[in-house]
Amino acid sequence: MKQKLFLIGFVLAAFVSNLKAQGVIAWKHATSGGYSYKYVTGDPTHSRFYTLKNGLTVILSTTNKQPRIQTYIAVKAGSKTDPDNHTGLAHYLEHLMFKGTDKFGTTNWVKEKPYLDKIDALYEQYNSTTDDAKRKEIYKEIDQTSGEAAKISIANEYDKMMAAMGGQNSNASTSFERTAYTEDIPSSSIDKFLTLQAERFRNPILRIFHTELEAVYEEKNRTLDDDGSKVNEAMFASLFPNNNYGRHTTIGTVADLKNPSLNAIRNYYYTYYVPNNIGIILSGDFNPDVMIKKVDSHFSYMKAKPIPPYTFVPEQPITSPVKRDIYGPNPENLTIAFRFPGAATRDARLLGLMGSMLTNGKAGLFDLDLVKKQKLLGASAGSYSLKDYSVLLLRGNPIKGQSLDEVKDLMLTEIGKLRRGEFSDDLIRSIVNNQKKEIIEDNESYINRADNLMNDFVAGVDWRAEVASVSELSKITKAQIVEFANKYLNDNDYVIIYKHQGEDKSIQKVEKPPITPVEVNAASQSEFLKQVNAMPSNAVKPVFLDYQKDIQRAKSGNVALLAVQNKDNSIFRLYYRYDMGSWNNKLLPIAAQYIQFLGTRTKTAEDFSKAFYKLASSFSISTGTEISTVSFSGLQENFGATVKLYEDLLANCQPDEKALAGLKARIKKSRENAKLNKTTIAQSLVSYAQYGASNPFNYTLSEEELDNLKAEDLVNILHELNNYKHTILYYGPQTATAAALTLATLHKTPAVFTAYPAKKQFVKVSVDKNRVLFANYDMVQAEIYWVRTEGKYNPEQTPKVELFNNYFGGGMSTVVFQQIRESKALAYSTYAYYVSPAKKEDQNYFLGYIGTQADKLNESIKSMNELLTDMPESEKSLADAKDNIRKSIETERITQDDILFNYLAAQRLGLNYDARKTTFSTLGSLDFATIKNFHDTELKGKPYTYCVVASDKRVSDADLKKYGELIKPDLKQLFGY
Description:
Layout: H1 2-21, E1 27-32, E2 35-40, E3 48-51, E4 57-62, E5 68-75, H2 89-96, H3 109-127, H4 132-150, H5 157-164, E6 168-174, E7 179-186, H6 190-202, H7 209-224, H8 227-239, H9 244-247, H10 254-257, H11 262-272, E8 278-284, H12 288-299, E9 322-328, E10 333-341, H13 346-358, H14 365-371, E11 378-385, E12 389-397, H15 404-420, H16 427-443, H17 446-459, H18 463-467, H19 469-473, H20 478-488, E13 495-501, H21 527-534, H22 547-550, E14 552-556, E15 559-565, E16 571-578, H23 588-594, H24 605-614, E17 618-623, E18 628-635, H25 639-652, H26 657-674, H27 678-691, H28 703-707, H29 711-720, E19 726-732, H30 736-746, E20 771-776, E21 781-792, H31 798-808, H32 815-823, E22 829-835, E23 843-853, H33 857-869, H34 875-891, H35 898-908, H36 915-922, H37 928-938, E24 945-950, H38 957-961, E25 965-967, H39 971-975
Parallel strand pairs: 4-8, 9-13, 15-19, 20-24, 20-25
Antiparallel strand pairs: 1-2, 3-4, 5-7, 5-8, 6-7, 10-12, 10-13, 11-12, 14-15, 16-18, 16-19, 17-18, 21-23, 21-24, 22-23
Helix pairs in contact: 2-11, 3-4, 5-34, 6-12, 14-15, 15-20, 23-29, 31-34, 31-36, 31-37, 32-33
């Protein structure tokens, strides 16, 4: 072990020495392609930082792993800069930036403008009116005028253009500091993308407003049902009474949501959406010299202007704990928050280190003392960095019978240890080693690169400090951490939020206004759209996997090893994959949990956690219903030591009755908590709908079986694990042959494998009539799922299924989203998918979803059912869907260990080839008649099971019975305990 620790120290020293050899990590200036930029020496992302003449920041990070680009357009304007009398305004604007300009999103801007001007004036009148009757009259006129305007507008034209150019994950988000617009695009579509974005930001038109406003209402109501959101709002309000972090919420207050002002939104845009307040961040496959010219030519029209500085009264020190109580249906928990300086400070970077000392998943104080010893059901610590301040967040979940004050005392006791220096002397070095690994892994992804660069741009963090972080933290001493902890983590200077399980009587939902469905004009196209679609783009040839060529094969003993070589860095990932799971043995998932609390005759469970963390390695055992996987990751130089450590634990772990008693208590508390979670309840209903009353979700240990569980039974399962047939998957710097030779001496297996235990069989049920499965939950919203079992898997259907999903209900430009959200404003979130199974013997199924207000339940069900009966036709939308699939396949590169998992997934479906190849070659022959026939054959006129989670105080039995036989299984039936 000492030899391995020396090796880690040597590797780290070499890493730091290499940085020093390059010179001090510092900003440098360079000129290339006619543009000056800054860069940081030693930056593994090779990022260039440009400031154009109009003040626009452009950050470029190139990597050619995939022919795609992750893009962000980030505006330093979020809820912190909302006007006090118009909270939620930045978030409103984010939604409206998808509605187009005077050039797109409309069939006739000249004809549309008078209607929009009238709507502007009506909203100002509406906001200044207090009489309820008059407000309703004005709103009725808003609704009527909006309907006329919508006949001229084109809903979702932005999304259609992005889909047609092969964009993925089109989205935007608003937070305290910023509003960020994000796209993942093919490199070949960059000219189309920049043309669209430059137009989008030139003159956004606030059209289709009242239906989008209703979507924001729905989003607000979702936060009212989310206990975590309520805890965070209470925490920020208590930490920052003087700063808008605490005085504003991102979505806004109910009162402000009810009184929006288009003029205020427009003024906000003109104030903050200026080039000297915007960053364009691009990471991916491109030439930076060419790219900067393109960005400059498209955005040079923007004019800089002064930005109002955000000012606030500095927060006063907290001298005694600030306590808040929050109530809601979810399980109880506790949050403690300490205030720290802003993200750009050295103290904020030290805060990140200190957070890792408390929680790092393996060897932090919370990990070892609270989780490993099972004193709490869950405990975590982490930093939340913002521009003006940062926060250390402590979260704790009680075990059964434990009070929240006991949770508080346990977490604060660990803080006391930090202040007194009662932690391992080599913990800081271990954290630095793990950060080194995390940096390497992070930089593998063009998406992660862009995300990190965007966040630092918004928070004003010096990128040089990020690049130098490993070098800086490696010099931190234990004494400095103790001094730092004593400076900020005093006994009384924190906010504490008690989240109780119970009714929240303070909820004031945003009431549903009467809205007449508006036209979406799916078949219409603006001239601008035609111009963008007609722009040439470089042809990109798809790259399909060849499983014989792309995967190396070897044998380690009598175990097959599949490998893909990592030729980029020193990271390895290793997997032992077993074709058995909980359906073979209900104890297997329990054993997988139990191992983390076990030691051997010579090492404790804590010793193993520390040893893995020192190696910058990790392992975990995950069990599914039919497949279980042991996963490892780390640095290749510690590959052998990592495997040896795991094999020692697996072979020699000892029964521990105290640990088992703690695990049983954890499981029982987790089960109680699951019954208080609406998402988990919905999952149980969907499983019931698919398989019947006895289903995979409730195939678990009964309370009696759990109580009778013996430590020896679980340990025997672990000791026998290597005796079952499995496959080894390896991604790392070694060849398959070299990895197999290393593993042959470490991973011992028998000459003949033990047969898997017999597997419980579950078969999806087909229903011949409509049913409604209902679960009562105290919330404002209603969650509605449509579930239907379909036919057996047929690989020839795959292209049709992909095209149908892309056209019908799988994204923002689809029929379901346009009709249910854009036209009728019935939901914030809605989708509908035809889902193929994971293995060839299984059946397909259909899953639709609407999350809506309870008083919209009937309208929502009616709207989805109309689409399931009659699918609207739009040849243009179909063409966009085909373009999106084709360009996504052309630019998708399945790499690294994903190659191995793609191969295994294909095997389970009975395929020996990359299924994308068939979709790509077949796509051109598919037309609307194809997917219309698919829709009519598979979905139209079919019986469905409706799964509804809602409050029985807001949804009546009479309403539910309209849709089929009403079944109300109790939670014991649903959960199996």
